[in-house]
Amino acid sequence: MVAMIISFVQSAIEHLPYVWFELTLACMATVAYLVMSGRARQRKTGKVTFHTDSKTVDMSSDRDPRDIASAQSVLVLKAIQQGNVCEACDMMNKLPEVIAGHVPDNLSKHLLLAVARMPRSPDVMTKMKTLDGKISSAAFEAAVADALRSNMDAKICRQLHMLSNSLSITKSSETFENLANAYFFDAPALRTLVEEATAPVTMAFATAVLQSEAARSDSALADELFNKVAEDEHSYLRDMLDEAANSPVTTQRTPPAGSTSKSTSFGDIMALKECVSGANLSNGGELSSKVIAMRANDIRSCGKNGDLRGAAKIFQRLGSQGETPVIINSMLEACIQNKDMKMAQECFNEAKALGVADASVYNTMVKAHLAQENEGAAKYLLAELSDKGLSITRTSYHGLLNARVNAKDLKGAWKLVEEMQAAGFTPNAVTCSILMKMKLSSSNDMSRVLALVEAMDQPMDEVLFLSIVEACIRSGRLELLTRQFNKLSEQKPPVFLSAATFGTMIKAYGHARDTKRVWVLWEQMLAHGAVPTSVTLGCMVEALVANGCAFDAWQLTQKMWSVKESKPLVNTVIYSSILKGFAHNKENDQVLAVYKDMRAIGIQPNVITYNTILNSFAQGGAMNLVPGLLDDMKAADPPVEPDIVTYSTIVKGFCNSSNLDRALAVLKDMKASGKYKPDEDLYNSLLSGCAKEHRPDEALQLLSEMKKSGIPPSNYTLSMLVKLMGRCKRLNQAFIMIEDISQEYGLKINIQVYTCLIQGCFNANQAGKAVALHDKILKEGLRPDAMTYTVLVRGCLQAGLVEKGAELARCAHGFGSLVPPGHTNKPGLEEGCLEDVVAALGGFGSEGGKDIQKELGHLQTTSSARKGGRPTQAPGMQARAQATRGGGGRPTSRA
Questions:
Q1: Contact 788, 773 (CB under 8 A)
Q2: Predicted confidence (pLDDT) per residue in 353-407, tens digit
Q3: pLDDT for position 48
Q4: What is the structure's pLDDT at 883?
Q5: Bridge partner list, 153
Q6: What is the rounded CA–CA span in Å between residue 773 and residue 779?
Q7: Other beta carbons within 10 Å of 756
Q8: pLDDT surpassing 70 at residue 247
Q9: d(CA 671, CA 667)
C-alpha cells in the first residue's frame, strides 16, 4: 500500500510541469476572453457618461432609466449643498422631468432655500430664470415651511417671496399664511403680500395679518386687507382687531434684542403668540376672542391639510371653551373640506343642542348641503333659521340661486331673487353673474337682469361685464351688448377692460358678420390702453378672415409686426388663419404671397400651414406647385413631417385634376413610409377620381383594400361606386354591390345612393328599373328629395315616358296616384325641371300643359342648395317655357 502511494506521488511530480503549463495557458485564454468581451459589451451598450466637476456618472443604455435619473438628482442635490447653484441649474435642465416642464419638488425646495441664503447675484438669477414656470406651488410651500421651522431670519422668507415672483411660482393659501407669520414686524413686506393675495382671502391668512405687530402700526394695511375679505367676515375681524389693539400685551410685542431692522425669527413669533394666548385668558377661565380666533385658525389649517383627525383633537381639547360659533364654524369647515358630512352633521346637531348655533353656523351647513347638491336640506335649514328669527346671509341666497340656475329653473331663480330683495338684500354683481349663467332666451328675462345691473349700489366691474358679454353671445342679443358696452364706456369712474374681454367681443361680432363693429372695438381697445395679446390678435384676424376680409387681416398683421412692442404677438397660427382665408377664395397668388412673407420675416410654418396651402393648390388646380412645397417642408429646420391630412389633400387635388395615377402613386408612397394608414376620406377621394376617369377596376381594387384594412364603406363610398358603375354601364354589378355591402356591414342605404343608382339605370337605358326603384324607396320609408325626383322626371322625359315623368312631377309635390296613403313628403323639383315637363307635354297651350299648370302652377319649384338657385314662381316658369319651347303651342295670357 505504501509502495503504491510512493509510486503515485513520483508519477505526479513527473507530470507537474505539463499540468502547470496547461493551467497557465487556460488562465491566459480566460483573461483574453474577458478583455475582448468587455469591449464588445461596451460597444454594444453605447456607454454614455454624465460629467460634473466633482464626479462622473455611468449613463450606459443598459441601466434602468430610473437609476440614471436618481443618480443625476443626487449630483444636483450635492451641487446645491456645496453652494454650486449655477452648476446645479445646468444639471437640472438636463433632467427629463425639467425638459418636460417640471422640476422635482425635492430639488426645487433645496434649490430655493440655497439661493435665498446667498447674496443676490446676476449670474445666479440668470441661471434660475431657466427654471421659470417649472417650480410647483407645493415645492415653494415646503421651502417656506422649512425656513420657518428652522428658525431662519425673516429675511430668508422675503428672499423666497421675491424668488416666487421672479420664477412665476403660484403661492398656495398655506404659503400666504406662513409668509404673513414671518412678516410679523415687517409692514412693507406684509403689505406687498396682502396686495398679491387674491380676493376673497382665507380667514387663516386674514387672522395672521391682523395678529401681527405690523398691522397695528399700519392702519392702511388693515384697510387693504378688509377690501379682500368676504363681507360676512368683516364684523368678526373688526372686533378681533379692536380687542387686539387694546390688549395689555401689545407693548410686549417688540422685535427681539439684537435683531436687524424689523426682521424676527419664527421661534420668536411663536413665543409671542403663546404669550398672547396665555395673557388673554379671563378670570373665569374662558378664552378671549383673540385666542378663540387662533384656535379656530388651527382647526381650519388641519382641515386644509387633510388632517381631520387633528382638527377633531383640537376641538375636543377645548371642551366647553370651544362652545362658540367661531370654533363650531371652523370645525364644520374642516369636515366639509374633507367631505365628511356625517361628522359635520353631528357637530351641527351638538351646536343646536347647546344653543350656540347662530346664523353663521346655519349658513355654513347650508353651503355644505348645496355643495353636496342637497338643495332640499339647505332649504329646510334656511326655513328653520328664519323661524328662529335669525338672519340669512346673502351668500346662502347665492348658493340657492346657483342651484336653481344649474337646474335650469329660471322661474325658481327669479322667485329667489324676489325673496332676497324682500329680506333686504339688494342684488349685487355676484347675483347678476349667477343669473347670467342661464341661457336668457327671452327679451324680458335679459331686460330683468340688466335692470338689476343698473340698480346695483356699486358700479359695474369687468367681471360682471364679461358675464353680460357671454350671456348676450349665448342668446344672440348683440344689440344689448352694444348698448351695455356704451353705458360702461360712459361710467364714472371709468372701467378699463382687458384685452381678453375685447377679444371675446370681437369674436362675437365676427360671428355676427359685423366687421364694422369689429374694427370699432379694435380701435377702442387700443385707445383705452389695453395691450393686445396674441389671442386677441388671433380673434381679430379670425373675425376678418371669416367675413372675407383676408387682405385686411394680412395688412393688420404686417402692421403689428412692424411695431417692436407688438411684434411678438404675430405667430404661425395667425398667418395660418390668413392663408386659410385666401385659400377658401381660391386665391393661389395671394396664398403664395403670404407664404413668402411668412418665411421672409422668420415665422416658421407648421404642418397645418402647409396643409392649408396644399388645400388651396388642390382646390385651385395648381398641383404643379405641390412638389416645390413638399421640398420646403423637407428643408425646414426642423423638417416638417407630412401627416395623414397632407397625403389626403394631395390625393384629393390630383383626383380633382383628373390625374388618378399620380394620386395612386401618393397612396403607394404613404404606405411605403409606414407612418400612416389611409383612412376613409382618402379612399373616398380616390374612388371619386376613379368615377371621374371611368376606371372601375382600380375602384374595385381600392374597395378591397378598404375592407382588408378594416375600414367599413359608408354611404358616400357606396355612392361613388354606384355612380362609377352606372357610367360604365355595369348596372347589375352596382345592384349586387349595394346588396352585398348593406348586408355585410349593416349599412342602411340612403337616398343619395339610390339617386345615383337611378341615374345609372337611365344611363343604361333601363328606365323601368329606375321607376321601380322609386317604389322601393317609398316602401323602405325613405324620403326622396328634390334631386331624386328631378333625376327621375328628366330621365323619364329623355326616355320618352312623358306621362310617367308628369306623374312623378305631381308626386314630387304631393299629388297623383303614385303618392302612398299618408305620405306627406313634398320636396318639389329642381329649378327648370317643371318647365321641361310642360314643354314635353306640348307647352302651356296643350291640354296636358294646362292640366299640370292647373295642379302645380301655384307652387314654387325647389332650387338645389348646391347650385345656389332661387325658388321660381309659376309665372316665371311660364315665361321661360314660352321662351324655350320653340313653337310648342301658343302662349296663354293666364298667370
A1: no
A2: 888 888 778 878 887 887 777 878 888 887 787 777 776 777 777 877 888 777 7
A3: 36
A4: 38
A5: 265
A6: 10
A7: 24
A8: no
A9: 6
Cα 213 from Cα 264, distance rounded (Å): 11
Q: What is the DSSP-derived secondary structure letter of residue 49?
A: E
CB burial of residue 477 (10 Å; 0-12, 13-18, 19+):
middle
Q: Which three cell numbers stand for residue 231?
A: 363681507
Verify that 190 and 266 share a domain, yes or no.
yes
Question: How many C-alpha atoms does 748 have within 13 Å on its Cβ side?
Answer: 5
The pLDDT value given to residue 687: 92
Q: Which range among 149-163, 279-293, 310-324, 722-736 shows the weakest confidence by mean pLDDT?
A: 279-293
* Distance separating alpha carbons of residues 688 and 711, to the nearest angstrom: 17
- In tens, the pLDDT along 559-605 reads 999 998 899 999 999 999 999 999 988 888 999 999 999 999 999 99
Length of the chain: 895
Q: Is 184 part of a structural domain of the chain?
A: yes
Give the pLDDT score at 239: 61
Establish how many alpha carbons lie within 13 A of residue 574's alpha carbon, considering only the half-sphere containing its beta carbon. Answer: 27
The model's pTM is 0.52
If one counts every other C-beta atom within 10 angstroms of the C-beta of residue 524, the result is 15
314 and 407 together in one domain: no
Residues 113 and 194 in one domain: no
Q: How confident is the model at residue 542 (pLDDT cuts 50, 70, 90)?
A: very high
Residue 282: the pLDDT is 38
Q: Model confidence at 701, in pLDDT bands (50, 70, 90)?
A: very high
DSSP assignment of 266-302, as one string? HHHHHHHHHHHHHHT--TTSPPPHHHHHHHHHHHHHH
* Same-domain pairing of 303 and 319: yes
756-780 average pLDDT score = 90
What sign has the CA pseudo-torsion 589, 590, 592, 597? positive
DSSP 8-state assignment for residue 568:
G
Bigger pLDDT: 324 or 786? 786
Return the sign of the alpha-carbon dihedral for residues 114, 117, 119, 122.
positive
Strand partners, 265: 153
Q: Shortest CA distance to 678 belongs to which of 719, 710, 640, 717? A: 710
Listed residues 351, 366, 389: the one ending a domain: 351
Pair 268, 179 in one domain: yes
Co-location of 74 and 123 in the same domain = yes
Quick one: cell of 748? 342602411
Distance CA 197, CA 191 (A): 10
Residues 6+ apart with CB under 8 A from 729: 763, 764
Cβ(116)–Cβ(123) below 8 Å: no
| The total number of structural domains that make up the chain | 6
**Mean pLDDT within 225-229:** 75
Instruction: Give the number of C-alpha atoms closer than 13 A to the C-alpha of residue 727, restricted to the C-beta side.
Output: 14
- Residues of the domain holding 97: 48-133+143-149
The amino acid sitting at 497 is L
Q: How far is CA 537 from CA 544, 550, 802, in A?
A: 11, 14, 61
Closest Cα to residue 74, out of 82, 47, 102? 82
- Interatomic CA distance for residues 456 and 451, integer angstroms: 9
d(CA 237, CA 185): 20
Tell me which range, 159-168, 200-209, 747-756, 853-862, is most confidently predicted by mean pLDDT: 747-756
For residues 794 and 785, the answer to whether their CB atoms sit within 8 Å is: no
The predicted model gives 620-627 an average pLDDT of 88
Same domain, 274 and 178: yes
CA distance 331 to 343: 9
Compute the distance between CA of residue 149 and CA of residue 152 in angstroms, rounded to an integer.
8
d(CA 796, CA 790): 10
Question: Who wins on pLDDT, 385 or 739?
Answer: 739
Domain identity same for 188 and 273: yes
Of all helices (H) and strands (E), which one includes residue 649? helix 644-656
Are 831 and 868 in contact by the 8 Å Cβ rule? The answer is no
In our burial notation (b when 16+ CB lie closer than 10 A, e otherwise), range 248-271 reads: eeeeebebeeeeeebbbbbebbee
